[in-house]
Amino acid sequence: MRLTFYSALMFVLALFLLGCGSEDSDCPNPNTLSGFVYIRQGALDELDGTLDDDVLVGDKSMPPAGFLPFKGAKVKVEETGASLELGERGAFVFHPLPAGTYTLVIEYEGFPPVRRSKDVCVVSLPSYYRPPYYYDPSPQPDRPPPKPEPPSQPSHQTDTSGSWDEGGLSSWGEGEGASARKR
Hints:
Largest sheet: 4 strands, antiparallel
Order of helices and strands: HEEEEEEEEEE
Number of strands: 10
């Protein structure tokens, strides 16, 4: 239990140190377009044919009084074309995105789309920061296999076949006039 508590404490501390620990931060979710979509209770039963005044996009995970998470609605980022279907909590996350203002298009069966603007901020991260692995489920274009590397050239080596060492000598005679030759 201590390891789990300690790990959770370190995670919260790391988020705080990166500037993502509170909603009061200048940039609570850097490089991320995220939030929650809520719909007014009973809005789908009204006969006015539009949801424009009944849909909220916010950063808080608890819906305001009189609103519910908009489960089953489709959220699309107009500038990138990325989209997803909202789940039980009405949450959406699109990552990574450059800083700027993006248009969310919220669609639900038979109703005209609702458009909302949302900002993405960017903060400078430490040089040792490595972004989390991002899985892109879209099919990747076929890429040709990498070209094989050319065979490496043998490095220049000195020919030692003519070197003289004690093991390669035989002597002829003894004394000053003795000579040696390679075996």
